[in-house]
Design a protein that fits this description.
The protein has two domains: 176 residues, Rossmann fold (3-Layer(aba) Sandwich); 178 residues, Glycogen Phosphorylase B (Rossmann fold, 3-Layer(aba) Sandwich), CATH 3.40.50.2000. Helices cover 42% and strands 17% of the residues. The chain has 15 helices and 13 strands. The longest helix is centred in the N-terminal third of the chain and has 15 residues. The chain is globular and about 60 Å long. It starts with a strand and ends with a helix.
Length: 362
Amino acid sequence: MIKILHIVGAMYPGGMENFIMNLYEKIDREKFQFDFVVHVQKENDYREQIKALGGNIYEVPRLTKDPVGSLLQLYKIVKKNKYDIVIRHTANALVALQLLVAKIAGAKTICHSHNETDPQVTIHKIGKICMKFATDKRLACSPKAGKWMFDNQEFQIIHNAINVDKFVYDEKKAEVIRREFNLEGKHVYGHIANFIESKNHMFLLDVYKEITDRDRDAVFFCLGEGDLRPQIEEKIRKLQLEDRVVLTGIRHDAQNFMSAMDVLIFPSFFEGLPLTLIEAQIASLPAVISDTITEDVVVTQGLVFMESIQKTPSYWAERAMEVLENSKLSERKCQRKSIQDAGYDMDTLSKWYQEYFEEVCK
């Protein structure tokens, strides 16, 4: 059996984490074992699912808070359990130190770049010096994400694939959410992302406010959790949106919400290649997104509408309402072949990964 250790900040639902769990569910678990190192564990994260699939999860301190303790604990975990491969999923190259330690402990190392930029530019530049020596293999979700992390080093582009059948629009899934939140006759707008700066929630709430001024039947969802929740709650109170915006917290049924929503609004400052937008396209859910997101995310026809975040919340509100109105004219039918041809089908990718892991271990 090939033993693989994934290092992730946390394992609660989000684009990168969902991708790893999708892969874990599909891969041959008699041949490959996945374990996880995280820096924080929270309620409703993937711990129970990981254990049910046969994996282990370890918590070590954040590298920026306790570098010596973090690296020493990681070394002991890798050495004791004799991992064949250690994969670090990241947007910042500082974590190259973790891969270097894993390499010293005897594992093959892979860095998977999941973003095209990061706010902590200085430590990223420092980390890139170490990255050249710390990695045996390099993966990226897009060309820009690879260039951001690895400069001119060789890397492979691997799409963050999805279990397509799980996200296909389903009226029964939609009905589950409509009953839970009393959505009969409502226009449902939503956003699915953890509460971090790059997702631009403050602008999103301004857009929500503009829509409420125009549409008394509009309701809004924010699926996710994170450190910015207090600021988001305060802004909701300031805009007097308490009875219109629902903060669901972490949910493991995002696919049901995508069936229940009418429009997804996604005004991120920056992204890698957000898996949520691929999931939305599988669900035939139209999305208004920022033009800072790579055009590579658009893999279907007539579902994704890119707009500048330099435009006003009022403009975004009008655009979202226009998209909702137009969507009523079309059936929500999955453009499955386009999604598979673009490389986002997990059945195909899991087979590729199995061959890849075996090759890395040779």
